Amino acid sequence: MPKKTIIIFTTVFAIVGAMVFGLYLLGKKTPTDGTTKVDVPWYQTFYPFGGGGQTEPPVNTSGTTGGQEPGQNGSTPQISRFSQITDFAVAGATFMEDTRLIEINPNTAVEAQPEPIQIVINPLTKEGRKEIQIILNEKLSLVPPLVVDGALGKKAIEAIKAFQKLNNLTITGKIDTETAPFFTKTVQPNGSSLEKSLYEEAPSIRYVERLNGHIYKMFLDTKTKEKISNSTIPSIYEAFFDKTGQTVIYRYLSSEKLINTYLATLSTSNGEFLPQNISDLSISIDKTKFFYLTENSNGVTGTTGTFGESRKDNVFSSPFTEWLSQWDNRQRIYLTTKPSYSVPGSMFILNTTNKTISKIFGGIEGLTTLINKSGSIVLYSVSTTEGPKLGIFDIEKNTTKDLKTFGLPEKCVWSIDNVNIYCAVPNVIKGNQYPDYWYQGLISFDDYFIKINTVDGSVETLANSSDEKSVDGTNLFLDKSENTLFFTNKKDSTLWSLKLN
Q1: Residue 134 — φ and ψ, nearest 5°?
Q2: Residue 62 in this model has a pLDDT that exceeds 60
Q3: How far apart are CA 483 and CA 188, in angstroms?
Q4: In this structure, is the dihedral angle defined by the CA atoms of residues 419, 336, 488 and 251, taken in order, positive or negative?
C-alpha cells in the first residue's frame, strides 16, 4: 500500500475515533431525565473533621432515617439560613444584651443640645440603687463587684461604709442626706440620661476560644466581632458565662491530667479554683448560680455556689457517682444517671433545702434528658434497636408520649413557651449503641433542624445542613426573640447560627 494512502487512512481513523469518543462523553454527562450532571470536585467533599455517618462504629446495622421528614429532598436553598460564626473551636457561648456606643454620623446635621446637668441619684428607686451599685463598683474597684440588682444587701452596706470612710463622711452604711450628694449622674435638662443618649443595648453573643481561652463578643445586627479578653488558658474543654457575661467558669485538663475548674472575672487579676476533678457542672437558667459534683471516698458530693459570692453549700451526697445535672427557672436541680445504651437510667429532682432526691421516672435504657424551663415536661431519649428515639414525660400527669422522631435531647433546646422544642436530628442513624457512639466520637451525625410541638406532636422541618456543609449540632441556645438558633458543630467545635424567621 502506498505511503500516501496509509497517511490518509490513519488520519481519517483518528478523526472518526475522536468523534465517537466525544459522543460517548456527551452521553455520560447528560442523563435521560433531561437534567445536567455536574461532577463535584474531590476537594469540596473532603472535610478534615469527618463526614458524619462515614465513620463506622464497632457494630453496624442498616441505616435508619432520623425522623419523620428527613430533610428537604436534597434541594439547595437559594439563600442559606446557616452561618458559620467562628473558624476556630469554641468551648462555650451565651446570648446577651450588650451595651455599645451609638455611632453618630458627623455629616448629619443635629440640633444643638442644651448643656447637661448633674442631679443626685434617688436611692429610693430600684434604678437609683442600681446606679449606686455601679458607682460603688467603679469608685472602690470592688473584686468581686457588687451584683447590680438594685438590692442594697450586706455587701452593698459594707461597700457604702467603705465609701463613706474614703470620703470622710459619717459611717452609717446608708445613703443618707450627707452621703447622697456624692452619688450623682449627668442628665439632659429634659430628664433623659446623658449616658443613655450615647449608649444603647443590642443583642450579642459571647464565646470562648477553646485553644487559648480568649473571649470574643459579636453584635448580632452588625456582625461586628471584638476580642474582649486576652487572658490565656490553654486547651479549654468547657466554658460557662454568668448573666453579666463578665464572669466565666473555665474547665480544662492540667498537665497531670486532672480536671481543673477556674472561675475568673474580666478586668480583674483575681480568680478562684473550684475543687479538682469535678465530674459534672451546670449553670442555673438565669445564670446567677452553679452546681457541681465531686467524688470522695463515700461517693459524690453536690455543691451550689452563687456568682460573685465566695460561699458554697453542700446540698447533695450519694454513694452513686455517675450523674448529670440541669436546672429549671425556679432554681430546682434535676439529676439524671449517666447514660449507656444497655443500662436502664432514671431521673430525680433534688431538694436543696432538706438535701433529698425524689425519683421522677426511670427504667429507660440509654436515658438522656432535657427538662423544660418551667420544670413540667422532660424531653428524653430511649435506646432502641433502630437508634435513640425521642419522647416526652409530663411530670404532673405522669404520662409519656412518643414523638416519633429519632435524636438526642443533648441536641435540642426548649422554647421559652415550654411547649415547643428546637432540635438538630440526624438524617441517617447507623448502629444502635447510643448515646455511647456519639459521646465517644465513633459516630458523627449529619443533621437537619426541626421544631417539635409537644402538645400535638407536629414536626416542622426548618433546614437541612446536608444541603450545604453538614453539621452535627450540640449545645443549642436561642436569642431572646427566638429568631436565631445558635449551636456548636460537634465535628470541629465551631460556632454556628441558623436563622429561624
Answers
A1: -65, -45
A2: no
A3: 35
A4: positive
